[in-house]
Each structure stands twice: as structure tokens, then as C-alpha cells.
Amino acid sequence: MATTTVSADQLLASIGQQRAFSLASPASQQRLLQGARLVQATAGEVIAAPQAQQAHLHLVLQGQVRLEDVDHDIRIDLRPGELFGYGTRASAQGSAWSAMADSDAVLARWEPASIDQLLNTHPAVAFFLGHRPASPNAATQVAVQAPGATVPGGTGGSPLNLMTTPVKALVKRTPITLPPDTSIQQTAQTMRDHRVSSALLVERGHLFGLITDRDLRNRVVAEGLDIQRPVHDIATLAPLTVDVADPAFDAMLLMAKHNIHHVPVMDGTRVAGMLTATDLSEQHSTSAVFLAGEIHKQTSVEGLQAVSSKVKLLQQNLALAGASAYNTGHILTAITDAITVRLLQLAEARLGPPPVDYVWVAAGSQARNEQTAKSDQDNCMVLDDAYDPERHGAYFSELARWVCNGLDACGYVHCPGEMMAMTDTWRQPRQRWLQYFDQWTGKPEPKALMLTCVFFDLRAIHGQTKLLDELRTEVARRTKNNSIFLAYMVSNALMHQPPLSMFGNISVNRSGDHPGTIDLKHNGIVPIVDLARVYALAGGLAAVNTDDRLAASAKSREISPQSARDLRDALEFMASLRIAHQVRQTLAGVPADNHLSLDELSNFERAHLKDAFQVIKGLQAVLGQRYQSSRF
After folding, report:
1. Is the Cβ–Cβ distance between 304 and 341 less than 8 Å?
2. What does the alpha-carbon distance between residue 242 and residue 234 come to, in Å, rounded to a whole number?
């Protein structure tokens, strides 16, 4: 084998020319030089076997290297200047890829610690480098991938896409099942022998319960419980489940929302397996599961504040891994829900149990599962009708104030219009809420219409959900086919117009704080949200999410299926543009906003944005004509 001919100066030059490493400071590039080990490989020599794919990061300096995924019959040729191994997309697939020299080659090799140090010092490097393998503190590590970047082993999306992959593809083994009357000791021994962290309790072929390592630790050892008692005494009975055909995304979201790490997988009524957070750990989106878990461990507002600071990075991860805006909204909102629930739990621990039943309710974008990393808070409380202001008012006032201030500290700023549970007006018994809606629908003046738009988008977060369910059912009954009220709602919705000139071209802001931009939220997304809300109210539909409302409205014939598809596509496109815009701002260290410059878009994207605005404008006109006469 010939002697390596790459000098230190040549290696430093190669490091500086590599796109990811070029973002590092000269001092960091010098540290990379010092930490590099030069490796020579002859043609046909294996550089990294599948099992060793994550052991090192390699930079090709001379020659050509071939990456192969034999399981999927994929081959990728790498040339000088390209990376593979630790931290790249191929490493996320673990044992799938091997690297072999196609010709005599020279490479620089780094230990993972060197790359971790680089990413910690220069987070922007991750924008081009790609995936960071999961680690014990994965909740605080979120990787990003440049849109359209060519990555070994992928096409810019997740290596195994959560949005399209069925749960059954992630089930790795036959589930360990036991009868419910098995002793605790025998259950622990069985789990140990099979090296599993959970087991399912099954009786006559039907799922009865779930037992985990955590249950054995917290409910048995910590409590000094008799280990000869039947395991069903400490198991989680009737656990939440997913179906084999469900998207893996649904399982991830279920875990994040409920802070659970084990979900039984069902095939109809038959137990098919067990899915754990570890099974999902190679997916970028699953950092939401770990983040939700970290949230539920916190015992102070300061702790929650530290965890919530990772939400912007989570949004980067999702957007740049190819997640849809629809799914991104659901994941980010699940984190907001988790923070809210934890704050309420901490508040009740401070103040004692609530004197009467209540439900904490999200309004606005949180209720619709459409949040981004830049969101304020809209919330309210529905109290049981047994509420007495004299006896109970101080408790709920303090609870709401503490939770709203906690949300503000976590980045969900106070609503400028004070539409929050800490405001006395929005913390009322169920009967008072019915009176509010009666007033708003009976006298639809401008303020009432504005409040209606916020508070018709409601979703229970914590507490007695039946209080909101009863309220929503009654309100839906009163608004369905109420043509006069709906006409006013349409008139209010038409106040948000897409920015099109009289000649049909996109018109940017000429003045104000953001000249030369368009407001994607208020002039693009909000008009669709308003249209979908009217369709849902007209049809008495229960859906709250905008995309779901449009789908349900098409089925109920409130809107044609084709028009619903057009609006849903327009919503997804503009919401994705908004998220990508905010990700670019965050990476540049600039506060995220909704004001997009057309210079950020390709000609292709501009054309599609113009089409989206025209779809909105056309359907606004149709709805306006439908209800025009009802206002008189």
C-alpha cells in the first residue's frame, strides 16, 4: 500500500472546503485537524462494516468510496469532499449500510466525541451534516437536515418515514404475554429471562393489561409490596393501544401526549406485539416522545422553561426531516399540551385538590393542533355549575394565574387580548359559557364575532372533559343552520383577504414594520382557517383541526370534494412555507415571524403560492354569495 500523501495543510484545506465544516470557526477547524486520523484503503477494502457504521465520521479525501445497503439493493458513490458514518443520515439506519473503497482511497476519520464537540460549539453545522444518533439525553438533541441535500441512504426525509410506515413494520418480536393472575415475582422473572422491559396480560385471547419495569420499581419495590400477589394488582388495566395498520406517527403522538413509552399493538382484537419508544428512537420525530417525558419529570417552572427551549429545535428537526405541516402542528401542540398539563399538576400540588370539577381548555391554534414554535396562548376554564365565587373563586383565580404565567415563562406569551383563563371573564361555570355563546350568536357585532372565532375552536386539555363536551354539543345545536349568524361569520371571515393585486399578482406590504413581505399567517393561513370554521359550524361538525374540518365538510357536502382538496393543499403548502421560513430565521439567530420575503422562494414556489391565494379568493367569493342575502 502506498504511503499517504495528504499533508496537514492539505487536510486543513479539505476541512475548510467541506460544506458542513466550513460553518465552523478557524479554531474549531484546527481542532478537527488535530483530532483527525488519516486512513488508507485499497480498492475493494471494507472501510466500515454495517455493525460499525456509527463508530466514526469519515471524510473522503482521495479516491472513491461505495456505500451499500444490501437489504434494499441501494448503492451510492462518494467522492472527495463527502462525508459518511457517525452523524450522517446513513448512520441512522444502523446496520443497513457498509462502506467499501471502490478505488485506492484516503480518508480522514474522527471519533464521535470530536463531532459532538463541534456540533455543541457550532449548532449550525448540523444543518448540513444531518442526523445525530440518539443518546441518553436525546430529549435535548435535535438534528436538522438541509432541504434538498443529498444524503447517503436517503432523499432528505426520515430513513423510515413515520408518516407512511405502518406500526407493524416496527414490531420486532412476538409479545411476551402472561395470565393476569401470574404472581408479581414470576412476572419479573419472565421479563428478566426474555430481556424485555414490559409484558402484556392476556386472558382468553383478549388484552387485559400492561406491566412495565417502571411498574415493578414504583408499585412493588418502592412500596414493599408482597411479590406473591397477582400481577394484575399493579398493572395498567385497559391500556391505550394502536393497530398494526396505524401509521407509526400515530403511535409516536400517542406516546408524546400521554407520556408513555410502551404501547400494545393490536391486529383487530388479537395482540400482535409491543411498540416502545426505543423502537422509534431512530426516527427524527420521536424526539417529541423524549421531550414529553422530560416535561413530566419537571418539578418547577424553571425546569419546564429549560425543556421548552428545545421546541424550536424540534420544529427544525421535523421540518427539515420532511414532516408535513399537518403532522408538525400536531407534534408541537402535543408538547404544548404536555407543558400545560404539567403546570396544572404542579399548581394543584401547591394549592391542593380543586374544590369543584373543572376543565382547562385550549383555544385558537393550540385547540386546532396547528401550533408552530412561535405561538402565544389562548385558553379558558369551564367550571362545574356547583362553582361558588365566594368559596371557590380565590382557588381557581390563583391556579389560572400561576399556569398562565408559567406558560408565558415557557415561551407561550400572554395573549395580547387577554383571552386567557387568568382573566375572570374566561374562567366561568358551564351555564355562564352558554350565556356567552347565546350573546355572541344572537347579537353578532364585531367584538362578538372576533371572540366567536377564538372560542369556537376549543379542545379539552386537562380535567373533566365532559364539561366541555356538553358545552360544545349544545353550541353546535344552536349554530347549525343558523343562517343569519353564519352570514355574519362569513362577513367577518372575508376581512382577511389573500394579497393579490387587481391583476392577480402577489402584492407585498409596502409599509409597516415588514415592507416587501407577505404575512403568511394573516393573509394566507387565517383565511382558510376562517372558511373551514364556517363550513364546520354550518354542518354542525365536531372537528376542530382545519384540515380535518375541510375533510369532514367535503363528506357532509358543505363544500365540494374538489374545493376541499384545493384548500387542504393550499393550507399545507403555505403552512410548510411558514415553518421553513421560521426554521431559517432560527438557524440565523433571528426571532421567528410570519413575514415572508418573496426572495426566499423559487419561481416554482411563487407560482404555487399565487395559485393558493387564488383558490382562497375564489372560495371566499362563493361563500360570500351563498350567505349575502341572510344579513338583510
Report:
1. no
2. 22
The model's pTM: 0.63
Cα(280)–Cα(260) distance, integer angstroms = 13
Please, which residues have CB within 8 angstroms of residue 96's CB and are 6 or more apart in sequence? 50, 53, 69, 71, 72, 90, 153
> 366567536: which residue's cell?
452
Nearest to 39 by CA among 111, 114, 115, 105: 105
Bridge partners, 105 (sequence order):
41
Position 368: which residue type?
R
Cβ pair 342, 304 in contact under 8 A: yes
In 206-357, where do the E strands start and end?
A: 206-212, 236-237, 242-243, 262-267, 270-276
**Cβ(365)–Cβ(371) below 8 Å:** yes
pLDDT tens, position by position, 433-469: 999 988 888 777 777 777 877 778 999 999 999 999 9
- 337 backbone dihedrals φ, ψ, rounded to 5°: -60, -45
The amino acid at residue 515 is P
For 480, residues 6+ apart whose C-beta sits below 8 A from its C-beta are 537, 538, 539, 540
Q: Which residues contact 629 (CB under 8 A, 6 or more apart)?
A: none
Please check the confidence at residue 297 and state whether its pLDDT lies above 90.
Answer: no
Q: Which residues contact 64 (CB under 8 A, 6 or more apart)?
A: 77, 78, 79, 101, 102, 103, 105
CA distance 200 to 232: 10
Q: Are 547 and 582 in contact (CB under 8 A)?
A: no
Name the residue with higher pLDDT: 309 or 397: 397
Strand segments, DSSP code E, in 176-224 are 177-178, 198-203, 206-212
CA–CA gap between residue 363 and residue 377 (Å, rounded): 8
- Please tell me the distance from the alpha carbon of residue 460 to that of residue 538, in angstroms, as a whole number: 22
How long, in residues, is the chain?
632
361 Rama sector, left if φ>0, alpha if ψ -120 to 50, beta otherwise? beta
Axis-axis angle for helices 389-409, 301-308 (nearest 10)? 40
What pLDDT, in 10s, does the model give residues 615-624? 999 999 998 8
User: Three-class SS of residue 563?
Assistant: helix
DSSP state of 219: I
